[in-house]
Amino acid sequence: MEENTNASKDANQLNTFVDRIERLEEEKKELTADIREVFSEAKGAGFDVKVLRQVLKLRKMDPADRAETEFLRDEYKKLLGMTE
Fold it and tell me: Which of 13, 20, 44, 52 is the most buried (most CB within 10 A)?
């Protein structure tokens, strides 16, 4: 009898997890569509979406990591003769 109770509890818990994941996946899909729309608006306003994505990536970094990345990028550009 206890096995049936545990199996039922496990099934209910699993079902709850699956339902939550499905709901979050749907929300993620909606958010992705919203983000795509904002990028489209930015492009329509004359902004370069590719650069905008790079700026967003840099803003997510902590200042030390961002400084290191920018330093290395500049060093690589120098080594490749890409600086003016």
Answer: 52
